[in-house]
Amino acid sequence: MTHPIRGKTAIVGMGTAGIGAAPGFSAMELLGLSVRAALDDAGMQLSDIDAVFAATNIHPCASMSVTEYLGLKPRYFDGTNVGGSSFEMHLLQASLALEASLCDAALICYGSNQLTAGGRLAFMADPQWHESTYDTRGPMTGHALAANRHMHQFGTTREMLADVAVSARQWANLNPQAFARGSLTREEVLSKRMVSDPLTIADCCLVTDGAGACILVRADRAKDFRKQPVYFLGAAGANWHRSIQAMPDLTVTAASECGPRAFKMAGLSRSDVDLVMLYDAFTINTILFLEDLGFCPKGEGGRFVQDGRIAPGGELAVNTNGGGLSCVHPGMYGMFLIAEAVAQIRGEAGERQLRRADIALLHGNGGTLSSQVTAFLGSKAAL
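^ that's the sequence the OP posted. Answer follows.
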């Protein structure tokens, strides 16, 4: 049985700004530009917005900062920050608030000038039980631990990891907005500078600027806006740890818990999914999430991604914008999973447009494989 909230809300406005490099703009200015783009996309005014959902990696009270910057007086607001998966969680929270009539138009937004600000991240780290205590090299070390364990336990190879990056680049080459385009072979991935063994720089996400915003309303109003509505079908989150040192099993993420719950909420099976948007901060993420979300058995993810299976023309469309590996990754990537799903469902993805894109699975990751949130968006045909 599907959840009562399935299909009761829809995205009617989507906007991005500053994808790649946007010198001269602050993070909040980029966020504001993406909000303007989302409002124009929907044919709405800023005064129509009465709820704000926001998270960034530099504003500890993001929803308050956004509200002040935009000059809003929202009836409802939420600054839940669970890392890069925050925005998939915001889809659920905004839908619940709309369905409860606590608001009428909900804004979800993010902005970062990480690249032009010098590549700095300002995450609020827990001083105790945090991997930085051991002088690790950022999130790369934690994900390298997971990659090494997966290789040891299941025979996954560096070549398999490299194939994830190659597939992402092939999708990026079809996306004029992607920051990293051009040829990328398995051999080139393997020969790049090693960052944290076994991950080379090509196994790691980009460092870019970028902002994104979307606007949700109740489904009974969705047809009144400029563009095809993209309906919220369900979502679920799970969180088992904060620090990688506390992860129960380095080869199993909490996606294995929230994925099945999200599928049940949306009343969907894997065969229903046309598009899979995964938070690919590192190549190992894609492999782990494909396993934990049930697209292949545990331990088979490395073999699953070989032979172009997730590349253009493959049997499973994964990260069609080029992902965090080749399209955009401004510190927190989850907002851009939503942007690509909306583009594909609306049929606005240009050269990379899928023949069928009625149902998209979005999976966000926060921290070092910490918070996991799975969400589903769909077209009218999916209702």
